Hints:
Layout lengths: L2 H18 L3 H4 L9 H13 L1 H14 L1 H5 L6 E13 L2 E13 L4 H67 L5 H35 L23 H11 L1 H22 L5 E10 L5 H5 L9 E8 L5 H70 L5 H36 L7
Antiparallel strand pairs: 1-2, 2-3, 3-4
Amino acid sequence: MSKIQSLKVVTTLLLAWALTSMPLEANDTADFYAEDARLRQYVQQALDQHPALQVSLARYRAVLQKVPQVTALPDPMLSFTQFIRNVETRVGPQLNTFMLSQQFPWFGKLELKGQVVFKEAAAQYQVYRAQERELIVQVKRAFYDLSYVDRALKISREERSLLEHYESLAQIRYSTGQGLQQAVIKIQAEITQIINRLKILDQQRASLVARLNTLMDHPPQDSLPPVGQLTLPQIGLDLEELYKLGERSRPELKAAMARIEKSEQSVELAKKEYWPDVTLGAGLTNVGGRDDPSGLLMPPSGNGKNALNFSIGINIPIRREKYSAGVLEATEGLIANRRQYLNIRNEMEYSIRDQAIRIETLEEQVELFEQVLIPQAEEALRSTESAYETGQLGALDLLDSERVLWELRLINARYDADFLRALANLEWALGTRFPAP
């Protein structure tokens, strides 16, 4: 093995040791955007405790341990030969032979094997990173859905309280002959529907709480506090910049690139199989002294002196079709990995564009609801309440105005949650924190 080859092998081993020594759990966790302190806490607990993520980390470290295995020389061979019928020589019979041999792979083979496994480990590390991003977006989606359900519960309870107030007014007006019994029944029916919606929302909340607890590796029945109204960030979206950020940051792309580099090294390694490996050996032959009459009478020079030998050998790679098939296999793997990289990049760009358009649309809808529709509905309800108090409008008109406002508030809450979900999906598509701090 040449000095250059030895240096490359040592470098590969040092890199492997450095990666193995990295305290990933403590100091190398993914960064992410979280506008709420509890959300950041939930995500961090999931990253620290989720079993599937720990499985991926262990698999990465397991692959990394292959590097010193494949870059080491084969074990030396020690052999012993005992002559059943001794070979007679001038200085005495040969009794037995000890032989120590060591195989040396052709120049560059060990280095390439180490690089192939090292790139495999690098790809597995990016798979671990991708699972981190997937876990983050799962926690965020559940949290934002929970925020919507909690807001819907709050709005529905306020609606129920207001309807009960309207029911009392309608009862009074009906008892004094100023209103209709139909209005009372209609309001009571609306209250019943609200009660049913509250039950459905409670069930949805229990399911979302169980989902969040599972992601954090907590018992599903553990309680979680209500999520208040979340603040929507103001962001600017430049698709070209987002595409560049995704190409730099997306773990799946980095994993695909590592697999391409692994395949390139695999092609070179397959070509090396055409070259023979070299085996060097050294032996010691135990020679007994002559005990025949001539030898005893006149011992020859070097009588009974053990013999030393040195051997060199190579394997003969004559199965050319086998090695050609190996090169073709590695080449097809390289082609597949290059195509896979292009496919991942195309899917990434689609996801970025899709979520960017969705964010812009939802941002416009939220602004429309908060600045135009909801204020108009609130003003309409106040006007209807004033007209109801003076007897100009009936309870059914009041009920219609109140229902419009309630539906608009629910839709706005849903849009808020969908906006944050789309932002989380965009962060996942980019593979890094977005928006940046």
